[in-house]
């Protein structure tokens, strides 16, 4: 009796523009989002990436997981680096008498976006440059130990807000719209097709565009590795993180919620960063307040 052994087809590590084998945590929401973003953009793209988790886990010297041109900048200056690349491409197009088809993208976490690089993003938007900015929002400085950022939600425990944050999350979507962006949107990693759709629409927009993606962080949110997608979905379904889209300054698309949408406590309870809220009467008051914030989102965007 003879046995024929057929060799398995080798893994094509080039199937995605963000290769496996990076150093991201198991269940990392940011890595899921970044792969979707890179593949939706395609290889004819140059990315300027701020310092943060995404940079650290994908480009440990001398290796890189990126299959497209990618430049690491400081925490604060990814938008300025992107502006320089954009200017260089425009100059090259001028002297060669042709239009550049290369898309320039700046990206970073919420620390680089909401806080440290906020001024440079504003400048890039003010200049009206045709550059896309992508924020991977894990709601804290997760790369340096889960400190609070301006994206940290009300009530969340971090190493710098051990009793829970009592600051409101900065509304970057509204700030983008205040700069006159023709395209601004937000979504979560629970909806990959929504990410792909919005990336393509942002890439096609005239002028600067902005996409913010909620990316749960396993150690920072104190969750299990298999809870990332479920919690990203609950963030939308509860109304605490609506998936919405603005085109030419007008609300153009929303993800409608079921009439029996889950309460915010279903979203908060699995997360260790909110466990203190379930231990006291004061905590219950905070949960009620967070529910009110979600209800206000539902009303503002007409999500039901």
Q: What does the main sheet amount to?
A: 8 strands, mixed
Number of helices: 11
Overall geometric form? globular
CATH topology: Rossmann fold
Strand content: 5-15%
Give the termini separation.
Answer: 66 Å
Main β-sheet, spatial strand arrangement? 2-1-3-4-6-5-7-8
Q: Could you tell me the mean pLDDT?
A: 94
* Number of structurally distinct domains: 1
Q: How would you sum up this structure, described in words?
A:
With 304 residues, this protein is an alpha/beta fold. The chain has one domain: Thiamin diphosphate (ThDP)-binding fold, Pyr/PP domains (Rossmann fold, 3-Layer(aba) Sandwich). 38% of the residues lie in helices and 14% in strands. An eight-stranded mixed β-sheet has the order 2-1-3-4-6-5-7-8, sandwiched between helices. The chain is globular and about 70 Å long.
């Amino acid at each position: 009796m003879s046995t024929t052994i057929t060799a398995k087809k080798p893994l094509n590590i080039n199937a995605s523009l963000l290769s496996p084998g990076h150093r991201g945590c198991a269940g990392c929401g940011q890595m899921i989002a970044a792969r979707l973003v890179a593949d939706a953009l395609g290889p004819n793209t140059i990315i300027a990436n701020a310092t943060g988790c995404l940079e650290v886990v994908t480009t440990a010297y001398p290796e890189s997981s990126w299959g497209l041109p990618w430049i690491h900048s400081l925490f604060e200056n990814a938008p300025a680096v992107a502006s320089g690349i954009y200017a260089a491409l425009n100059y090259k197009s001028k002297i060669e008498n042709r239009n550049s088809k290369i898309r320039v993208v700046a990206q970073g976490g919420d620390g680089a976006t909401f806080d440290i690089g906020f001024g440079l993003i504003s400048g890039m938007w003010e200049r009206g440059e045709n550059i896309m900015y992508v924020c991977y929002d894990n709601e804290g400085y997760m790369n340096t130990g889960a400190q609070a950022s301006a994206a940290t939600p009300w009530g969340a425990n971090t190493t710098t807000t051990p009793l829970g944050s009592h600051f409101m999350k900065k509304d970057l979507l509204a700030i983008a719209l205040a700069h006159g962006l023709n395209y601004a949107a937000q979504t979560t990693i629970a909806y990959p097709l929504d990410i792909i759709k919005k990336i393509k629409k942002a890439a096609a927009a005239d002028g600067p565009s902005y996409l913010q993606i909620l990316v749960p962080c396993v150690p920072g949110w104190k969750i299990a590795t298999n809870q990332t997608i479920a919690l990203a979905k609950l963030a939308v379904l509860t109304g605490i993180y609506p998936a919405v889209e603005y085109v030419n300054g007008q609300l153009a698309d929303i993800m409608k919620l079921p009439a029996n949408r889950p309460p915010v406590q279903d979203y908060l309870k699995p997360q260790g960063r909110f466990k203190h809220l379930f231990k006291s009467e004061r905590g219950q008051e905070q949960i009620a307040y967070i529910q009110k914030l979600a209800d206000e989102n539902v009303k503002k965007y007409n999500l039901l």
